[in-house]
Amino acid sequence: MTTLELPERPRILVITLRRLGDVLLTTPLIRTIRRGFPQATLDMLVFRDTEDILRGNPDIDNVVSMPARPSAGETLFLVRSIWRRYDLAVSTQAGDRPTFFALVAARRRIGLVPHAGKTGAWWKRHAHHIAVTAEPDSHRVSQLLGLATALGLGHAPDIVCPQNGTAGEFAPRTPYAVVHPNPFYRYKRWTEAGWRGLARALAARGLAVVATEGREPAEQAYIDSLWGPDEPAVIRVRGHLDWAGLTALLKGAVVYVGPDTSMTHLAAGSGCPTIALYGPTSPRLIGPWPVGGLADPWDHAGTIQHRGNVWVVQNPLPCLPCEKLGCEGHLDSYSRCLDELPLRSVLTVVDEALGRSSPSGAR
C-alpha cells in the first residue's frame, strides 16, 4: 500500500461531479475521512445544483461548487481558485473532468480509475498517487469506501443526511406515509393506477399520505393528475421543503414508497422504513443504502429484497435488469417491468414494513 505524506492538519478536497443521489452516497466516505483526519480542513467540489444535499453536514468545512456545464471563463476561474490549494484531492469518479480537477487542486491525489485497457486509463493511473480500480459489480458506496481502505481508514458506513431542517405544516400529527411518485426520468416511473391504489390502501390502513415533489410545472401537473376530489386527501409538499426539511419529514414517517431517485436514497439514509420500486436499473450497483450499510449486496433482480430499513420491489422479467433507458432506449421511454409491477407486491411490503397483515379487500 502506498503511504501518503500529509501534514498534521491537511487540507483535503473530495470531488463528486454527479447528480444529487450520487453526492448523498458520497457522505459515508466523507465521514470516514473526517474520522480518519479529525484535524483536517475537509472541502467538497460538487455541481451547483447539488450542494443543498450537503446542507448542515458536520463533516464538511466548505462546499466549492461549479456549474454542470461551465463556460471557459468559469472553468478558468475555478482552476485559479483551487490551484494547489490542497494537500490531498480525492476523486470519487474515473472521468476526465474530476481527474483533471484533482490534478489541479492538490499535491497528493487518490482516485477511482477505469480498468486497465479502457480509454484514458493509462493517464488517470499516473495522475493519482493511489489509483483504485472500482469493482464493476459492487455498490457505489462500496466502491467509494474502497478509497478509504486504500488510505488505511476504517469505514463509517452510514449516509449523512442534510440536517437542522423542519417539516413544519407538512408533517401530520397522526401517523403518516410519504410517497414520491415522480422520478427525474420518465423511464423510472411507476403507473398512475399504482399510485392511486397505493394512496387508497395507505388511507385504509389509517395513515395520512404526504406526496413530495419539486417545483417544476411539469412535475406538479403530473401529481395533479394522480389524485382528484374522489381520491383520499393527499398532502402536497409542492417543492416548499428543502432537503433538510425533507429529511425531517422522512424521519417522522412510518413508511416511504418511491422509485429509483434521490428522494429514495434520502429516505433510506434517514432511517425511515423505505420501499424502493426498481425497474431497469440494478439495485446491486445503485440501490438504496440502508442504515448500517449492506452486509449482503442487493441481488440484481428479485421480487422482494430486504436489507435493514430498506425493501427493494421489482417485477423480475427475464430482461431485468437491462440497464437501459427503458424499453425504447430514451429518457421518456416506458419500462414494461414497472408498468406491469402489481400493486399487491407493493402492499405486501408496505404491510411488512408496518408490521401488520393486510386488511381484507385492501389490495
Description:
The chain has two domains: 11-150, Glycogen Phosphorylase B (Rossmann fold), CATH 3.40.50; 168-354, Rossmann fold. With 363 residues, the protein is α/β, with parallel strands linked by helices. It has helices spanning 20-25, 27-36, 72-82, 96-105, 121-127, 140-150, 192-204, 217-226, 243-251, 262-270, 283-286, 336-339, 343-354; strands at 11-16, 41-47, 62-66, 86-91, 106-113, 130-133, 176-179, 208-211, 234-236, 255-259, 274-277, 304-307, 310-313. 32% of the residues lie in helices and 18% in strands. It is globular, with a radius of gyration of 21 Å. The strands form two sheets. A seven-stranded mixed β-sheet has the order 9-8-7-10-11-13-12, sandwiched between helices. Strands 3-2-1-4-5-6 form a six-stranded parallel β-sheet, sandwiched between helices.
* CATH architecture classification of the largest domain: 3-Layer(aba) Sandwich
% residues in beta strands? 15-25%
Termini gap: 56 Å
Mean pLDDT: 94
Q: Could you say which structural class the secondary elements and strand pairing correspond to?
A: alpha/beta
Q: Summarize the biggest pleated sheet.
A: 7 strands, mixed
Shape descriptor reads globular
Question: Order of strands across the widest beta sheet?
Answer: 9-8-7-10-11-13-12
Give the H and E element order.
Answer: EHHEEHEHEHEHEHEHEHEHEHEEHH
User: What's the level 1 CATH class of the largest domain?
Assistant: Alpha Beta
The count of DSSP E runs of length 2 or more, i.e. the number of strands, is: 13
Uncertain stretches of 5 or more adjacent residues = 357-363
Helix percentage: 25-40%
Radius of gyration: 21 Å
**How many helices?**
13
- In CATH terms, the superfamily of the largest domain is Glycogen Phosphorylase B
Our count of domains comes out at 2
